[in-house]
Design brief:
The chain is of the alpha/beta class. The protein is built from 15 helices and 16 strands. The strands form five sheets. The protein has an eight-stranded parallel barrel with strand order 1-2-3-4-5-7-13-14, surrounded by four helices. It has a two-stranded parallel sheet with strand order 6-8. A hairpin with a 2-residue loop joins strand 9 (about 325) and strand 10. The radius of gyration is 21 Å and the shape is globular.
């Protein structure tokens, strides 16, 4: 068989996109709660429009989402029916430390995740925990300036130690941050940053990035102290950049964009700032302070594996007058050789293989594909059943490409979790109509619906894929 016998098939969600229950059992206010659906969402998540509390002019989908907080047993039972080997989920920081800087954690929050983990283990499902999936306590954003502030490293470290000590022996796989590179495109959602008049946003972003990189190393340091069996991974929003033409200038532009993304993994995997980024930040006069203690911590606490999301590749031209389109918060030149999703993301299964190869060749560490999926308009029948052959075709083509990366190219991949196995709120747009799941949830973009769960056609297809360890894709 192509994939290792212990290959971890499953699905991935994020607390703020599925749990709901935003104000129950001691949970505090988080940045992700304040990201509305509609025309202002992009301005809010990019830090251009301040949203410090709820108002009456917007709808906030994360408040209730699909109410997995109360329905997790039903949902995990459905995941188990599909045969999941792993379930990737995140922990809402504000369920554990509502303000972020408390001395003691919120026991009700810890108990919720302990029950969720135990429910997974009951079915033999390995928990894969994302420690921070964009969630950031608003108290830390308002009082400390978000990840700009070095103090945030220790607040995060306390959160991490609390989680790892509580779930020691139950959880082996952790991711330190979800898609750390997204803080460059969506700084409020990614790092709790909103910008003040006259502030240099890039300077603030790279300062925040440095503090997250040091915090990542602290997470690995804590893991070694708590349980040497814990494996810590970083997480990248991946997808190769293609040059728009074979002009040398376009080739260089694509290389530079790839480097901008790989920088975050370079530091976490190699343990030091790459020279290309040092030169760039020094040229711009925005190099953050990197202390000797930082350097030692980064050097001695590199990650064990590299996880990433893959939805699409992007194309770039050195010509600044070239027309651009937006795909997943990132601008791209149209690639005429690729089809597109309902939301205009370019569909590129072969790009998945080349992206895997790029990452594995660069780092030579085990990989974990923790997000891949198709956001689409689904049309359920009266029973909630969806004939989603388009989703099956998308996933089939991508799994084949991943299989080729393993079988033909020699990549070492630990597992594959689709995004998201159940319909949930979109991070980019805040919509429910942008559906990814094998399980349909009766809810619209503005919270209307019964929240009833029903299986789509892809449910049984993925069940067969898992049972055959990726061999039966028909």
């Amino acid at each position: 068989m192509t994939f290792r016998k212990d290959f971890l098939w499953g699905g991935a969600t994020a607390a703020n996109q599925c749990e709901g229950a935003y104000n129950l059992d001691g949970r505090g206010l988080a940045n992700v709660d304040l990201c509305p659906v509609g025309k202002d969402r992009e301005a809010v998540i990019t830090g251009k429009m301040k949203m410090l509390d709820f108002d009456d002019d917007h709808f906030y989908p994360a408040k209730n989402s699909i109410d997995m907080y109360h329905r997790y047993k039903e949902d995990i039972a459905l995941f188990a029916e599909m045969g999941f080997k792993v379930y990737r989920f995140s922990i809402a920081w504000t369920r554990i430390f509502p303000l972020g800087d408390e001395e003691t954690p919120n026991e009700e929050g810890l108990k919720f995740y302990e029950n969720l983990i135990d429910e997974c283990l009951k079915y033999g499902i390995e928990p894969l925990i994302t420690l921070v999936h964009f969630d950031f306590p608003m108290h830390l954003a308002n009082e400390y300036g978000g990840w700009r502030n070095r103090k945030t490293i220790e607040f995060y470290a306390k959160f991490v130690r609390t989680i790892m000590e509580r779930f020691k022996g139950k959880v082996r796989y952790y991711l330190n941050f979800n898609e750390m590179n997204v803080l460059m495109a969506a700084p409020f959602m990614g790092a709790g940053l909103y910008f003040e008049e006259g502030e240099n946003p890039r300077e603030a972003q790279y300062l925040a990035a440095h503090h997250e990189l040091v915090a990542s190393a602290r997470a690995k340091q804590i893991a070694k102290e708590v349980d040497p069996n814990i494996m810590i991974g970083c997480m990248l929003a991946a997808g190769k950049y293609y040059p728009a033409t074979c002009k040398p200038e376009d080739i260089l532009a694509a290389q530079e964009e790839d480097r901008n993304n790989y920088f975050f993994v370079d530091v976490q995997s190699r343990g030091y700032y790459p020279s290309y980024m040092v030169k760039k930040l020094e040229r711009e006069g925005i190099m953050p302070e990197v202390t000797e203690e930082d350097k030692k911590l980064l050097r001695e606490n590199t990650i064990d594996f590299i996880s990433f999301s893959y939805y699409t590749t992007r194309t770039i031209s050195a010509d600044k007058n070239t027309e651009l389109e937006e795909a997943n918060l990132i601008a791209t030149v149209d690639n005429p050789y690729l089809g597109k999703t309902d939301w205009g993301w370019q569909i590129d299964p072969l790009g998945f293989r080349t992206t895997i190869n790029d990452i594995y060749d660069r780092y030579q560490k085990p990989l974990f594909v923790v997000e891949n999926g198709l956001g689409a308009y689904d049309k359920p029948d009266e029973n909630g059943y969806v004939e989603d052959d388009y989703r099956i075709n998308y996933l089939r083509d991508h799994i084949k490409a991943m299989r080729d990366a393993v079988e033909l190219d020699g990549a070492d991949i630990l597992g594959y979790t689709t995004w998201g196995p159940i319909d949930l709120v979109s991070a980019g747009t805040g919509e429910m109509t942008k559906r990814y799941g094998f399980i349909y949830v009766d809810r619209d973009d503005y919270g209307n619906g019964t929240l009833k769960r029903s299986k789509k056609k892809s449910f049984d297809w993925y069940k067969k894929v898992i049972a055959s360890n990726g061999e039966d894709l028909d």
